[in-house]
Sequence to fold (974 residues):
Amino acid sequence: MSNITEPRGATKFLLRANAGLVYAFFYVPIVVLVVFSFSDNRNVGVWGGFTFDWYRDLADSEPTKDALWASVQIAAVSTVVSVVLGTMAALALERFTFRGKKVFDALLYLPVIIPDVTMAVMMLVFFSQAANFFGFSKGFTTVTLSHIAFSISFVSIVVRARLAGTDDTLEEAALDLGATRWQAFRHVTLPVIMPGVVGGGLLALTLSLDDVVITQFVTGSGWTTLPLYVFGLIRRGVTPIINAVSVVMLVASMALVAFSLLAQRIRSHDPV
Amino acid sequence: MNEQLDVATMPTATGEHRQRAVEISGVTKRFGDVVAVDSLDLTIADGEFFAMLGPSGCGKTTTLRMIAGLEFPTSGSLKIFGDEVGTLPPNKRPVNTVFQSYALFPHMNVRDNVAFGLKMSGVGKKAAGTRADELLELVQLSGYQQRKPSQLSGGQQQRVALARALVNKPKVLLLDEPLGALDLKLRHEMQNELKDLQRELGVSFVFVTHDQEEALAMSDRIAVMNSGRLLQVGTAEQLYEQPVNRFVADFIGRTNLLDATVADGDSIVLANGTRLRAPSPHAPGTKVAMSLRPEAIVIGTRDEVPADQAAHSLDGVVATTTYLGHSVIYDVKIDWIDLEVRCLPERAGGRFAPGDEVAVWWDRTSDWIVPDDIDDEIHHDGPIDVVQAAQDRDGPT
Amino acid sequence: MTALDIEPTQIEQPAAPVATPEFEASNIRQNRRRGLLIALPAYTYLILFFAIPLFIVVLYSFGTRNRFRGTDLANWNLESYRALGDDIVRTVLVRSVTLALITTVICLLVAYPLAYYISTRPPVVRNLMLVLVMIPFWTNFLVRNYAWYVILGTDGPLSRVTETVGIGETRLLFTQTAVVLGLVYGFLPFMVLPLYASIERIDGRLLEASRDLYANGLQSFRKVLLPLSMPGVVAGSILVFIPSLGAYVTPEILGGAKTTLLGSYIVTQFLTASNFPLGAALSTVLMAIMLIATMVYFRKGGRTL
Fold:
């Protein structure tokens, strides 16, 4: 596939300008946010001199720390479970045939395309009914169960992509050399798909940490997650501490992304 | 009397009979409606370098996989040194495979790749490592232990695959198109190395290829397959000089096939009415084809034809000449037939030019009559006893 | 020296049966069973915690809101769906669809030149540019919307800038424009990537040839580039339109009470108005639109996400 050739003249200028504007559009808000998080002024968008005050407030803020801790716990459980289930789903779909496979495949896609709101509504209604049935209250369980419900699909997509690109004769070779099915999986398949599993895990982690609507609907007292807390703050009345929280969350997600890209890079030095 | 069995149990130089390493009886493999392998009977002797040859889709790879255990036959018996293994999973068979794509484990280094089989059967890390090192030395890759497969060339990867497959001391080694991915020069080198290795180890090597030249060059015996059926098993000579049917004649090397009908035990009649002396064991009226190898045909002028060969000679006109350096190829047009004739160059290039009127003839033992039937007729009687047929024609040698 | 000098490893040879079609069939069945077992945990989970909730919601959409702010499922009716025709609901729906369409169009207009430009860069630069497009996407969604909240507020930086330049104060916060801005910001990567993927696949020689054949770049674009990149256009449009239609967080933060969109409206039905059936009906409709759009996406040869 030949490269598309360089555009010329006026087109080139326009394209460059457009590209520049788009990237500015992408990054200016982030920069602004970071800048104003150091602004000594109660009014969020106004500059008032440099300060660390808001970060100090953040560090002292109990509710923020509680919210963070809640988010982390939920995300941890959600990630682990959805990685296991999602990887198994991917393996089943890529390496086996069985009755009901098509239905399973379709079912796995739904959580990806369903809008947040619909899913939030679904889970709310379900847990209201279930609460009567099973008697568990809304809180950690309901939130985590909901997060897992949408994360499994994302994990399976990532792992499937990795599996599909893998030579399946590797497993045959393992069997040929004397491995049992389990040994072949443990020593050959799993290591080879590990970048996919890790990528899927990071995706599940991000989705869980970021979620707002679904969590809002199904959470109970004491389990306000960080995004939910920030969301509430914004609607109730903005204080600059939100800037600080936002920047911290920003840095954290960027770090996660960078980490995940690096991890993939290191692994991908082994072409399959 | 089945020729292939004779060879399999043929006494070796020391007088002992060779064992049957692989014995396939009546094996059929169906994938849904498609019959990949149709009632195959094949025996491979211990210590043989055996090739399975045929076009894509002929069933050779499926057969190999059934020996390995990566597929199970739909029906039939598959024995290895007398033990029925057809339904055993691959990890329980004393057979190992070198895959076409090598299938080296990308996340392990060379040493771990080679030692894999041993570790799976419980051998300790140290012992496994030592054995792996020995095998790497055998394939001339000492010093490459720590490298990853992605850091190796194609030829090196293949050696690692070989070492890895030999580490368990398999009773039969299977190779799936082992040299396909290598460039020409490397291929020739590897052909010789594989032969040497096989001789040194004394283990049966069974390999699959679609390259008939490769099969002829390396193998003790070759099985030619097409459309899931075994057509002929024999040495390279037997296949080349006494092909059992049209397909085999055409598949191995280059040949001219002239359609004809058997007139009597001594002669055939070509489609244009020309009568040629050509003995064959077929009944008069049988549709046959005469197989003439290009290098067996002599080309010259009509008056050069020896008297005793006139009964199998033809007249024609040179259509094209191709100079290949080591030989000259003439395309001679005889009525509707295009004969390809190959001879050594004379003087500067070839002796004849396009448009020249020439005669072609051949020695009475150089032609070979093949029946014109479709493959299945051959199959049901089992492979034809070609040794006997040749004896019938030419008299005892 | 041969490697066979050391004692051979023992391989057990249990007495194995001869192959038969029954054996082959049972082996295939075994493999299927294995596959099903491996899929089972995720399968069960999704049925329990996804399919059933979805089903319940659809069920609710046929219920009625009873006097005690609960939901009566006994009398099935299509009231809620009829209510979708009510003025209020219709306004919300129309507004949401319009905004989603505007967002999609803007994204298309902005992303296309960018995607084209990226595909003309050398590979290293290309990858860098693509990663730079993705990075904002990976940061927290809430935070990104909040950033615009800060920028667009009265006395916010944007207003300051326009004042300095002389245009005067800008009060964009809590307007539909702000919402569109937020949506475009959030979903632009979804448009850039499929477009880029589709344009990158086009053979550059075709474009060269078309430039020779057609008088100017515009024609070459209309007759060759655009049709060839259509799969990317369709994919990107669907990937932007769908989430924009169901957006909740962005309108909540950047929009105001005046601009109620579908997402917020549904949420209100559940959290405030307790009109579950109506909310359920709206969710079902939204879900149906998504499904149809997705099927269109796959029909047009869209690849897996």
Notes: Strands of chain C lie at 64-65, 71-72. The radius of gyration of chain C is 28 Å.
